[in-house]
Amino acid sequence: MAIRLLLILAAVLSLFGCSDSVDDNRIPYCEVHLTFKTVGDWNLYGVKGDAADYCRYINTPALRIPAEFPYTALDRTGYGGLLIVTDILGDLHVYDLSCPYECSPQIRVEIPSGELHARCPSCGSTYEVFSNGGMPVSGPAASRGYGLQRYSITSGGALSYRVVTR
Q1: Is 32 exposed, middle or buried (0-12, 13-18, 19+ CB in 10 A)?
Q2: What tens digit of pLDDT does each residue of 82-94 get?
Q3: Angle at the Cα of 101 (from 100 to 106), degrees rounded to 5?
Q4: What is the DSSP letter of 132?
């Protein structure tokens, strides 16, 4: 009986004890706040809801993407910018555009045409952004376990449609 209990305990511990951990907090803290005030703003500038659809948001003194987006003085797009994607179920996910291996606000991941991974143009690391929460797939970020920084997106209240926050 004691051996049987010991084997069950060992099996349970093996399920929880040896998982690969991912560091998704390598990007320095920066404020994140992006508001889509109306459904019209979301329909014009947001992610359309199709599987594997995405949009990038960068609001710095030198760069505004999308250029026509109605950014306000309160909007903050994180360290390197924001990447909003829809997964295959149509759920929204938000990541910082900065590659966590490079840790530079000017080195931003991109989604090459026809691919389903985000790729760093500098180190070549790739990340699953349409599934698995920004986990590294290949490159130095994968070997070190550096995942993309994730943020939250919620439905707004009476004064806004969607809000992205840290």
Answers
A1: buried
A2: 999 999 888 999 9
A3: 70
A4: G
